Each structure stands twice: as structure tokens, then as C-alpha cells.
């Protein structure tokens, strides 16, 4: 069976900020996240990223800057880079089908990688991530890093049955140890 995982970016892979991550210099990995992605790739997993990046539409940074952030991540991962990165530059008020909680980015991942995401893990730190995962019949996981603690504090019914981990590294160790 082909194993694929979809990761949110801000708060899962890199530190998040309510003021947005606006440059490669501000893009700082969450502790253990680079090791987690490397471990997934070395175990034969396909790794995709689905990230809302409304900072583009807000004028905080441009697509070239976003690309430099992703290049920094890829440089840190060396030969274990993600297989695909989808991003949505839109604001929530734009009602774009690509912006989480909508499923356009996951559909793009399915098309680009010729995979079915049904049942695949989706790792996020917000309700939008959980909602997008559920809409695609994926297995949602929540991390406490990023906005995860804030998300848990909502006690939203959507979190019912969602497994929670401290960070991406803790989740990946769990998945790999349990043969997921």
C-alpha cells in the first residue's frame, strides 16, 4: 500500500505567528519537524503539504518570498524534501475552493501525485485543517504546536475522536512505531 501524509505548514512544520511568517528568515522549523519529515521519507512515505498563505493576498509577502521559505525548508531537508506543496493565497472571505477548510488543495495533491487521500493522515493545528481532513475522508491529527493549544481550548465538537500529539515529531514516531 502506498503511504501518503498531508501536513499543514505553519504551526506544524514551522513556528507560526499571528503576525504571519513573512520571510525565509522568519521561517523557523518547529523542533523535531525536519527530523520527522526525514523519517517519513526514509520509511517510504509520500509527504505533501497543504498550506493557507493569505499573507500573499494581504500584501505581506509575494510568491517569490513564499518560494524562498520553501527553498529554505527543502535545503534543511536535503534529499528528503516533500513530494508536493499546495498553497492557497486567498483570504477566508474570498470563498476560494482552494483555501482550507475547503478541499481544493487536497484535490490538487491527489491529481498531482495520482493518489487517493481517503484514509490518509492529515496533520494540522487548526479547526480548518480538521474540517478539510474530514471533508476528504482523511484521518485528522492535531498537534499542540502552533495554534494547536488554542484549537483544543475551543472544545469544538469537530475535535471529537481526533488524536492529539505534542508536535509533528511525536506523531511521526507514533505512526512509524505502529506500522501506520
UniProtKB/TrEMBL annotation:
InterPro entries: HAD-like_sf, HAD-SF_hydro_IIIA, HAD_sf, Heptose_bisP_phosphatase, Histidinol-phos, PNK3P. Its EC number is 3.1.3.-. Transmembrane segments: none annotated. Keywords: Carbohydrate metabolism, Cytoplasm, Hydrolase, Metal-binding. Its cofactor is Mg(2+). Gene3D superfamilies: HAD superfamily/HAD-like. GO terms for molecular function: D-glycero-beta-D-manno-heptose 1,7-bisphosphate 7-phosphatase activity. It comes from the Bacteria. SUPFAM superfamilies: HAD-like. It is found in: Cytoplasm. Its main location: cytoplasm. Belongs to the gmhB family. Monomer. This is D,D-heptose 1,7-bisphosphate phosphatase.
